[in-house]
Design brief:
The structure holds two protein chains of two kinds.
Chain A: E1 8-15, H1 23-26, H2 46-49, H3 60-63, E2 69-71, H4 84-92, E3 96-99, H5 104-112, E4 117-119, H6 122-134, E5 139-143, E6 148-151, E7 154-157, H7 162-169, H8 176-180, H9 183-193
Parallel strand pairs in A: 1-2, 2-3, 3-4
Antiparallel strand pairs in A: 1-5, 5-6, 6-7
Chain B: H1 5-13, E1 14-17, E2 23-26, E3 29-32, H2 38-47, E4 57-60, H3 77-93, E5 96-98, H4 108-114, E6 123-126, E7 140-143, H5 146-155, E8 157-160, E9 164-171, H6 180-191, E10 199-204, H7 206-210, H8 213-221, E11 230-233, H9 237-243, H10 253-263, E12 273-278, E13 285-287, E14 295-297, H11 310-323, E15 338-341, H12 343-346, H13 349-359, E16 369-372, H14 377-385, H15 388-395, E17 398-399, E18 420-423, E19 439-442, H16 445-454, H17 460-463
Helix pairs in contact in B: 2-5, 6-8, 13-15, 13-16
Classes of the chains: A alpha/beta, B alpha/beta.
Chain lengths: 196, 467
């Protein structure tokens, strides 16, 4: 499978502040009753974007509809393993997430969809939030080769596990193609493990 | 130094190293359900791929199924579409489906153990984060996303990075009225909701050895709430006794026993981190906030901002506002509207036996809606065969059909408005129980029963005179 190689991601940011933002918050469970992911974008962060009467709360996502880089806090994407969460973000238009840290299953789900998840130190993350709040149009450049985020006159050093970074820049982020190649070895492992 | 179970099982299942540096891992058991699998089958169809090992894949329906009636078609047409889809996907691909029609349906993490599918030394995956439950059997069990469900369906393998292993020793014995649920809430409280990221938790020590299999399942189930994707207990005689005679237990029992014993952690096994906890120090524990780490002993006060780390201050403030609570306020005495006993965390026979033991002769407080929901049709049969359901209904609880019910609001069982729910489930996230302003307080089933009877958060040890 020929996959896109992610070296540079550019665009505008949306600041969704807070720690421990869970996948129930990113996509409430009632919107998971679907047999495909296509229509999920509209339900992203639904219960914080709308009040109980369905009225818009003017959430940052609605104020920055062209933003493609979401910035949040620590432990982003904790809780349920639902891929519906990164799928909803993707279909909303998000192409990268920057946070202080990520929950593990969410991180893996994002990489498999080609959504880079980058980590910044707390102080730099705060600066990034401030820059976006001051100027929502500020251009953000994520450079996965240099491991840097460039915004206005700032250069921040980003962190991402090396295996994930390599899979993104080499266009190997969806592992299915490679998994399919080792049929004989899989069969061998299966036989070796047979205890019945 | 010796090897721990995690690394032994990982090495046995490793197919090869991938170009990214990740390992290709063979998956012994793949469990699927209606919410996270239909999209994966769709992807397979698009790619023109077949299911590689249908005999290692087992399906059920749990998240969307109503628990008040089993009548089809469901009133909710989206739920009906999903149950039709899973049956069809299983039929087309030769996958065993534990369906409501067969009398075998249940929550995926209840039926895996119940059928003897979950066994020591396995790698077990399911598109559900509470798959860590099956670690109670000495398996590496973890939740995955739907693209990974696709990967397993197509190849019976996954691309994964090895985890570090943290040994959590729980020494001594839990006090009366203190359960596995209290222990895991306590562990998450002290290690934090992100403390386990990058780790598998190995639980051991005398308190764990004393636990029944179902208590070990409760413990492992909530590992993910502490950030640990995997939680497990080394297999022992209790594990083997539980599995013996189960429908899917291995036919070659002696060979299986030998293998299972060989994969347990060596006595001098190496760990990346070790934590020691004294079991007697733990009291019935309840959450007060919006993540499972925001927990306190039943007689403690809700913390003030100055008592938590700089990192947790923001979430504490957010939680106080959402829960409509104040710092330094006791949690005991807080009025409740709903009581829920069930879920993959606490919806098994022993949970219901324990509740029945205490609530006989008591009545649910007026104005409290109280639900008891079995984790599977088999659990329902067992409870009814013992006549326990009569104790529940006489006390004023509704006795329901099997399903996930009020744990996650994908079915008709939901909170309304800002109702407060004493719940034996696993997550107290904002809106988790179906109302965007609903408030969840997590606790053990016996503590939920005490809250239901008092109409407020209570210490079950006082309500039921537990020594």
């Amino acid at each position: 499978m020929a996959l896109k190689k992610f070296e540079i991601i550019e665009g505008k940011g949306v600041s969704v502040k807070g720690n421990d933002i869970d996948t129930d918050r990113i996509i409430p469970a009632r919107f998971m009753k679907c047999v495909t992911f296509e229509g999920l974008g509209q339900y992203t962060f639904y219960d914080v974007r709308f009040d109980e009467n369905g009225k818009s709360t003017n959430h940052p996502l609605d104020l920055a509809k062209t933003a493609n880089i979401l910035i949040s806090g620590a432990n982003f994407g904790c809780g349920s393993s639902r891929e519906h969460a990164p799928q909803a973000l993707y279909h909303w238009g998000i192409r990268a997430v920057i946070a202080q840290s990520f929950a593990e299953i969410f991180f893996g789900n994002c990489i498999t969809l080609g959504i880079p998840c980058l980590t910044l130190a707390m102080q730099e993350l705060e600066t990034l939030h401030d820059l976006i709040q001051k100027n929502p149009q500020v251009e953000i450049q994520i450079d996965l080769l240099q491991k840097q985020i460039k915004v206005a006159d700032n250069i921040f050093n980003l962190e991402i596990p090396e295996q994930a970074r390599l899979s993104l820049i080499n266009g190997a982020w969806d592992s299915l193609g490679e998994l399919l190649e080792s049929k004989a070895q899989v069969e061998e492992t299966k036989q070796r493990l047979n205890i019945s | 130094m010796g090897k721990n179970l995690f690394n032994k099982v990982w090495d046995l299942h490793k197919v090869k190293t991938l170009s990214s540096g990740q390992d290709q891992l063979f998956i012994s058991l793949h469990l699927i359900h209606e919410v996270t699998s239909p999209q994966a089958f769709g992807m397979l169809r698009t790619l023109g791929l077949k299911v590689a090992c249908p005999e290692k894949t087992f399906a059920t329906v749990d998240h969307i199924i109503p628990t008040d009636t089993t009548l089809r078609p469901f009133k909710d047409s989206l739920a009906e579409e999903m149950i039709v889809a899973i049956k069809q996907n299983c039929q087309e691909n030769g996958i065993k489906y534990f369906s409501p029609e067969s009398g075998d349906q249940g929550i995926v993490h209840v039926i895996g153990p119940e059928k003897g599918l979950s066994q020591p030394g396995m790698t077990i995956a399911c598109g559900d984060s509470h798959t860590s439950t099956h670690g109670a059997f000495g398996a590496i069990a973890f939740g995955i996303g739907t693209s990974q469900v696709r990967d397993i369906l197509a190849t019976q393998t996954l691309a994964l990075s090895r985890l570090k292993v943290r040994r959590i020793n729980v020494n001594g014995s839990l006090k009366g009225g203190v359960y596995a649920k209290d222990l895991i809430l306590h562990i998450i409280k002290i290690l934090g909701v992100k403390g386990g990221i990058g780790f598998a938790y190995e639980y051991g020590g005398s308190a764990i050895e004393q636990m029944r299999m179902e208590e070990r399942m409760t413990l492992c189930n909530m590992s993910i709430e502490g950030g640990a994707r995997v939680g497990y207990v080394n297999p022992d005689q209790k594990t083997f006794a539980y599995l013996e005679g189960k429908p899917y237990a291995p036919k070659n029992w002696q060979k299986a026993l030998e293998h299972w014993k060989s994969i347990a952690s060596d006595e001098n096994a190496e760990y990346d981190d070790i934590i020691n906890i004294q079991a007697e120090s733990i009291n019935p524990t309840v959450t007060w906030g919006i993540n499972p780490g925001q927990a306190i002993g039943i007689n403690e006060l809700i913390p003030a901002p100055e008592e938590v780390s700089e990192d947790d201050k923001g979430t504490l403030q957010e939680a106080l506002e959402y829960m409509k609570l104040k710092a330094k306020q006791p949690i005991k005495g807080l009025k409740i509207n709903v009581a829920f006993i069930g879920s993959c965390t606490n919806g098994r026979l022993s949970d219901f036996e324990e509740v029945a033991k205490y609530i006989k002769g008591f009545k649910v407080a007026s104005g409290v809606r109280a639900l008891i929901v079995p984790g599977s049709m088999e659990v329902k049969k067992e409870v009814e065969a013992k006549g326990l359901h009569k104790i529940f209904t006489e006390a004023g609880f509704e006795w329901r059909e099997a399903g996930c019910s009020m744990c996650l609001a994908m079915n008709p069982d939901k909170l309304k408005g800002d109702e407060v729910c004493a719940s034996s489930s696993n997550r107290n996230f904002k809106g988790r129980q179906g109302s965007p302003t609903g408030r969840t307080i997590l606790m053990s089933p016996v503590m939920v029963a005490a809250a239901a009877i008092k109409g407020e958060i209570a210490d079950a040890r006082e309500v039921f005179s537990i020594e």
